[in-house]
Protein 1
Amino acid sequence: MYRWSKLFIPTLREAPADAEVASHKLLVRAGYIRQLGAGLYNYIFLGQRSLNKIIAIVREEMNKIGQEFFLPALLPKEPWAESGRWTAIGESMFRLKDRKGADLCLGFTHEEIMTTMARSELRSYKQLPQIWYQIQTKFRDEPRPKSGLLRVRQFIMKDSYSYDMDEAGLDKSYNLHDAAYRAIFTRCGLKFVVVEADSGAMGGSQSQEFMVYSDAGEDLIASCPVCGYAANLEKATSLLPPLEEMVATGDGKPELVHTPGCAAIPDVAAFFRISPACDIKCVAYMALKRGAAGKDGAKKDGGPESWHGVATFLRGDHQVNETKLAGALGAAELRTMQAEELSRYFNGPAGYLGPVGLKVDAQPLGDGLTVVADKALEGRRNMVCGANKLDYHLRNVTPGRDFGWTLMTDIRSVNEGEGCPSGQDGKPCEGRLVVGKAIETGHIFKLGDRYTRSMGARVLDENGREVTPVMGCYGIGIERILTAAIEQSNDANGFWLPASIAPFTVVVTITNVADAALRETGEKLAAELESAGLDVLLDDRDERAGVKFKDADLVGIPYRINVGKKVTEGKVELVTRARAYSEDVALDEVAALVKRRVDEELLLEAVVAK
RNA sequence: CGGGGCGUAGCGCAGUCUGGUAGCGCAUCUGCUUUGGGAGCAGAGGGUCGCCAGUUCGAAUCUGGCCGCCCCGACCA
C-alpha cells in the first residue's frame, strides 16, 4: 500500500510562469512532471504511474492483433539512406556520429528499421500477414516544442507496422488497428473523433487520425454536425455555393484597368464593387524538391536538393493550405518567395501578380514556373486578377481561356460554414462545416509499398512469384493520451482522470492523523480497498485536512474517501472528483461501493470499446 | 529561422529606469499552539542575481557578446 507520507509527490500551489495550457500547468502542479529542457520532461511518480496504466491498456489491446517487439532507439544511417529519408527528413531528425565517425540517428519513427527485419526474415506468403509493434521512445527535433507534453522532443510512442500480401490484406490490418485504437481511446476515457487525414507527399492511399477536441490542440478539424463527416483541415473539402459572375465588359476579353493603390484584396474588391470571391489572388512559393531513392534502393543518399518557383492562384477569399499544396507538388518544403525571386519569376510587383501571360511549366517543379490553380477556379468566368503591372488589374479573366496552369487541384483550406462535401445516393448532405481545434492522439496509415519496395522486401506468393508486400504504419502518442484526458477534465482546483488511467483510483484521506481511531480506521479501510483490487493511496500525512483535500482535488484521482468525525457514527464521506459530489456512506459498505462504481466505469468503457 | 517576452532562494514575484554590496509571499527546518478546505505565533536555513567580458572606487542594476526558457509567426504581398 502506498502511503502519501512516504512518497515524493511535489504539488505546487502555483503553476510555473511559463506554462500556458491547462494540462501543462496541472501536470506540473500535481507533481506528475518537471521540465528538464525545451520539450524534455522528467516524469515523476504519479506521472509515470499514469503513463504505465495507459501503456498497459495499449499493450493489452495491441496484443489482440499483433506482437510486441522492442527495437533500438539509436539507429544506423543505412536503412534511412535506402528509403531516401536520411535526406528527406530534414532537421527534425537528431543525428550523431559514433567514435568511428559512422552516422547514426535517434529514432524518429521505425518504418525502415522494422522493414529491415521484414525483408531479411519474411520469405513466403505463408508468413503473412504480420503485425509488429513496440512501445518506445521517439526523438524529434521539433522547430518549436510547446504546451507541456503536447509537443516535445522526446516522447513515448506505440508504433506498429503491418505487412500483407496485397491491398485486401492491408485493408484488414488497417481495420484491425482502427478497431484496436477505438478500444484503446475509449478505455482511456477519451471523447475522441476519427477524422480523414492527409496521407502526405510520400504516397499512401488512406489515413485516419484519432482526435480529441481541445483548444490546446494544434490541429484543425472540419466536421459536419448533420452526417458526421470529419476531416483534418489538411484534407477537408467542401461544397461551395454557386456564385454570380461579373458581367463581361467590352469584347469580353481581358481588359486592363487602372487600380491605383489597390494592392490588397479588400481594396481590389472595393474598387470593382465585387466580392473577393470574384478576385483571383496569387501566393508565390519556392518549393524544395529532394531526390528520392531509386526503386531498388540503389541510390543510397537520394538525389540533390533543388528549389523551384511555384505560383498558386485561388479565389480572393480562400487560403492556401500548404500541406495540400506540398502534397500536390511532391515538395518536401515550401517557403514564400522573397522579393528578388518574385522579380525573377514575375514581371510585376507584389500585390499586382496575376496568372495571365505567365510562362507555365508543363511538369511540376521544372526549371521555370510551376503554376497551380485551385479547383475552386474551375468553371469560373470574368474574374479580376493582378496585371503583373504596378497599379493595374485585369478584368474579364476566365480561367482556362485566358491563362493555363501546370496543374489544377484542391489546394485551399475549407472555411467554417461551407457545405459538407459528403452525400448519399447522389444527394448532397445539407450540413454546414464547423471547424474546431483538436489534439492528435493516434494516426493510422496505409503506406502501400513505399518502404518495402525501396528497401527491397520480397516474398513468394502461392505461385512462387516474387511480390512486394504492402505495409501499414500506426502510431499512438502515449503522453498525449494523458494530456488530452487532462485537457478534457479539469477545473481551477485540478483535474480528474478516468479510473483506467489514473495513478490511483481512490485516495483515503485521514483527516486528522493525531486521532488514533481515525488513523486505524483509515489504515483498515485502505487495506480493504486494496484487497478489493483497487489502487489505493492512503493520505496519512500529518497535515491539516484542508491541505490534504486540496492536494487530493489536484492530482487526478477520481475517488476520495474522507475518514473523519463521522466515523463515530460508522460513516465516511465518498467524494467523486468529476462531479465534486460528496455522499455519506457506511464504513463497512464503502469499499464495495467504490469497487462497484469503478467496475461499472471500466465495464462501460469496455462495452463502448466493442 | 523571423518577431516579442523573460532569466534574482524550490515556486510565484519586487528591486534594474536613477550603480552603493539583495528583499517579499508561499514552500522548507525547529519549537509551541492548532487539526474538515492550502492554520497562528516565534525563530532558523537557503541565492556564483543565467554565463562571460567590459565600464566603474563599487555592477542584480550600465555596455557588449553568448546561453537558456516561453509565446507568436514562419501562408494572402
Protein 2
Amino acid sequence: MYLQFRDEVAAALTSALDALDLPTDDLGIEDPPEGVDAVLAASAAFRLAGEVGAPPPQVAGRIADEIDAAEYDLVEAATAQGPYVNFRASDAYYEGTVEAAQSETFGRLDPTGESAVVEHTSANPTGPVHVGRARNPIVGDAVARVLDFAGYDVDRHYYVNDAGRQMAVFTWAYETFDEDDLPDPEREKADYDLVRYYRKGNEVLEDGDPDEVEAAEEEITAIMQGLEAGDEETYDRVGEVVDTVLGGMRESLGRLPAEFDEFVKETRFIRDGSVDDVVDRLQDLDEAVYEDEAWQLDLAAYDIEKNFVFLRSDGTTLYATRDLAHHEWKFQNYDRAVTVLGEDHKLQADQMRATLDLLDNDTDQLRQVIYSYVNLPEGKMSTRAGTGIDLDDLLDEAVDRAREEVEDRLDDRIRDDDLTDDDVERIAEQVGIGAVRYDIVSKQPAKAITFEWDRALDFEAQSAPYVQYVHARCCGILEEAGLDSADTDGALAGVDASVLDAEAERELLEVVARFPAVIEAAAEDLEPHVVATYTREIADTFNTFYRECPVLRDDVDDDLRDARLALVAAAKHAVGNALGVLGVAAPRSM
RNA sequence: GGGCGGCUAGUUCAGCGGACAGAACGCUUGGUUCCGGACCAAGAGGUCAUGGGUUCAAAUCCCAUGCCGCCCGCCA
C-alpha cells in the first residue's frame, strides 16, 4: 500500500503543480518526522518559492488547495503545514495494509525479470574462516537475500582462487611435510587439519635453510607453470588441497548460514582459453604498454595512477587478469553482477572496472560493495600467521552464551509452554548465531569494527534477540488464539480492519506498510543494514501496541479482537520476513 | 609522499540537503487485576572532529586541517 500511496502522492503533486504552471521535476517527497500526522510529506514549496515569488508556506498552501483528495483512493487529505504539504492516508490505506500483510510473502516485490549474481567471501582456501573476514559472508548473503526478495533471480557465487602462488605454496607444503612434525589441529575438521601444512610451509619459506627454500621455490614455480599450461596432473594435485580445505570452510560458512549456488574456480578460465583471449585483446588496446618486460595498462584516463600489470615477464597471467575473464563470463550470464569485497581490494576493483570498460563491457552491470575489516584490539587477523578468532569459535561461544541465557530465563517465564531440551538448543542456536549476524549486518559496512567478545555477544544492546522476541510474541498471541503460527498465510484475510483506529494501531500499521519500500531501498543501494534499522523500528512500535492494545483479553469485542489478530499477523509477517532478509532466524518461541 | 574510506550523546550505532539530530546500552525514576517483563513509560546526557565555503536551508554538499583504518607487489 505504501508504494501505491507514494505513487498517488506523486500523481497528486504533479497534477497540482501542472495546474499552477510550475515545474514538476522536484517533488521532494519524504517521510515526515515523528509526531507529524502524515504518512508522506513534500518539500517542493521550498524550491518553488523563488519562481512563484511568494514565501514557501504560501506556496505550500496553494499546492495543497489545488489537490482534491477525493480524487484519490488512498490519500485522505493534503494539508499545508508551514512550508510542507502533508499527506494523510485514508481508511482504505490502513485497511489495505492489513489485507496485503496477511500474505506470508508480504514485502516481497514483483519479479524484475532480471538476473543477478552476488559474489561474496571468495576467500583463498588457505584455512579456517576467521572473523576478520566474517563480514563478507554475512553482508554478502544478506545482499543476495535482499535482491532475491526485491524480485531478482539471484545466484550466489564463491570465486575460488585455485591458481595463485598461495595455492602452489600450499600444495608444495602439503606434499612435503610429515604430519608428525606438525602441531595437533585445533579442530577435527579438514580446514584446520590442512592449514598446519600451509603455516609450516610459510615458516620454512620465511626463515628456513636457504637450500631448502631454493628447492621449494623451484617446486612452487613448477606448480604455477603447470597450472598455467593446463597440465592435468598439476591441476589434480592442487585441486585436492583446494577442495579439501574449501570443504571445511563451507561447513563453517554454512552455520551462518551462508550457502552458495556455485563455486567458480579461476582455473576454469585458464582452461577454457578465455584468459588468453582477454590478454590478446588487452595487448591490442592503445593503453597497453610493454614496460620492464611486462605487459601493463595505462589507466590514467580513469584517474588511476598505478599501471595495471596483466602479463608477467615470464608470460604468466595474474589473478587480476583471470578475474577479468571471470567478470566477462558473469556479464554474459547475468544482467547484474554484485561483488562484496574488503576495502583492501578497492584499488584493484577500480582497475578492473576501468579495464572492463576498455574491453567494451557495460560496466553499469557491475556493483561493488566494499566493507572494512574486523580487527582485533591488538591488530589484524591472519590465516598464515595463525592470529585471529576462528568463526567456528565465535559461533560456538555465541551459542553457549545464548544457551546459558535461555536457561537462566526458564524459571521466570510467564508463558507456560514447557520448553524441551531440544527447544532450548534450538533457541540457543537461533539467538546466538542471530546475534552475531545481526550485530554485523546492522552496521554500515564502511565502518571499521574492532572485535571484542563481550560486545559481539551482547544480547542486551540493540540486538537480534530483541527483534526475535517480538516475532515470538506475535506467534504466541496467534497460537493462543488457536492459529498455527507456522502457517499464517491468509489465515485472517478478510477481517474488517476498519475498527483499528487507536493511535498505537495506526502507528504500527504505518510501520508495517513501509516494509516493501524498505526492501526497495535496500536493494537499490545494496544496503541490507537499512532492513536491520527497520526491524528495530517495527519492534519498538509493536511493543508499544502490545502494551496499549490487548488482543485476547475478555473485555475486547470480537470484531476488535479479530482485527487486532490480523494486525499481529501482519506485524509477524513484516518482522519475520525482515529477519529472513537479514539471514537471522525468526523463532516461534524463545 | 599520493589515493580511498571513517569521525554524530559516556559507549555502540542510525540519520547523509529540508520540520526541534534519533535509538539502544549504561545512569536516575516509575510500571505485574498481564495475550510472553529478552517488555513498557519518564528523566538526565550532543559546539554532529576542527576551520572555512556553497545554499532560502548543511550532521548531510565543496575545500583545508587533525586523528584512525585501508591501499599504492610482475602476491592473492
